[in-house]
Amino acid sequence: MENTHFSLDELLSLSPNQTFCNESFSFMNELTIQDVESELGNQSKKRNREECEGGEEGEGSRKRSHREDEEEEERIKREKKRESDRKSALRYRKKKKSEAEKLEQKVNELEEKNKFLKNEVNQLSKEFLELRDFLLIDFICNHL
């Protein structure tokens, strides 16, 4: 006779009236309470392992999965913070570059205005000297 073992689910699915008396199936005599208890223990261990690996949370897996979840959340937070910092630094650099370009443009405009005003001062100075010379000549000619 060959001994064949069945799982607890298979045994529980049998009705009390079913018996296996042929030569290939004789398990009823060998089934003991220890077998049932060990099968229940194995199912419990499987359930805890499944819960630890991503199923429902089990008592034994809470600390480890909770710690891993916290570490993963911290890692994600750090990545988001770094990305936010990069974007902020990029905005800051663009703003500073824009301000520098505006200042450079303002310097160029002021230099152009300064040149224009210097030219005007020179022209007015020349005109003043011409008028003064004219008045002097007129005064000398008419009053002497």
Topology diagram in text:
Elements: H1 8-13, H2 33-52, H3 62-143
- Helical fraction equals over 70%
Q: Runs with pLDDT <50, length 5+?
A: 19-31
| Topology order in helix (H) and strand (E) letters | HHH
Count up the helices.
3
Key words describing this protein structure:
75% helix; Leuzip_Jun; 3 helices; BZIP domain-containing protein; mainly alpha; 144 residues; transcription regulation; bZIP; rod-shaped
Structural notes for this entry:
- With 144 residues, this protein is an all-alpha fold.
- The protein has one domain (32-143).
- The protein is 75% helix and 0% strand.
- The radius of gyration is 50 Å and the shape is rod-shaped.
- The chain starts with 7 loop residues before the first helix and ends with a helix.
Précis, in short:
The chain is mainly α.
